[in-house]
Design brief:
The termini are far apart. The protein contains three helices and seven strands, in the order H-E-H-E-E-E-E-H-E-E. The chain has 155 residues and is an alpha+beta fold. The chain has a domain of 105 residues: 60s Ribosomal Protein L30, Chain: A (2-Layer Sandwich), CATH 3.30.1330. Strands 1-7-2-6 form a four-stranded mixed β-sheet. It is globular, with a radius of gyration of 19 Å. The longest helix has 32 residues.
Length: 155
């Protein structure tokens, strides 16, 4: 029996399913063809999602709840303030975050205790229940490599 690979979004409660699907048996396509078709279907929703995240950040920033300064983002992440952190893909910033104060120190990546700050920020936000999204550079709403939407302002 051959089944179609299609979206079941009308029959499912899964919010990640799309209305449009690939209406051909997966064995009838090469992996490359399958990926191309899937990309064609998912790309509009992906682009819309990135635009929505950038808009959410802009609104948060206008209300004092958006941060793009690495030092301020690190402090907010340590305090558990960040709801959503956007990290620029393919960007690396070397340094360390002090786990007690959130202080950022920029250092050479060749030092064994130094890591990528963006990666460390992402891990910190995830441990405090925030969401981390890696965003292509051309879709990032900031030039610093990070854009944080905070849950609340620190008092």
């Amino acid at each position: 029996m051959c089944a179609k690979v299609t979206s079941a979004s009308k029959d499912s409660q899964n919010p990640f399913l799309l209305d449009e699907g690939i209406e051909v048996h997966p064995d009838a396509l090469t992996l490359t063809e399958f990926r191309e078709r899937a990309g064609h279907i998912s790309q509009p929703q992906y682009q819309a999602g990135l635009a929505e995240l950038a808009d959410e950040f802009a609104v948060a920033k206008s209300k004092g709840l958006g941060q793009e300064d690495l030092k301020q983002v690190a402090e907010a992440a340590l305090a558990g303030q960040i709801a959503t952190l956007l990290i620029e893909s393919d960007r690396e910033i070397s340094g360390q975050i002090d786990g007690a104060t959130g202080e950022v120190e920029f250092k050479d990546l060749s030092h064994p205790e130094v890591d990528d700050l963006l990666d460390d920020l992402g891990e910190l936000v995830l441990t405090t229940g925030g969401r981390v999204v890696v965003v292509p550079a051309d879709r990032m709403p900031t030039k610093t490599g990070v854009a944080a939407t905070c849950r609340f302002q620190q008092g």
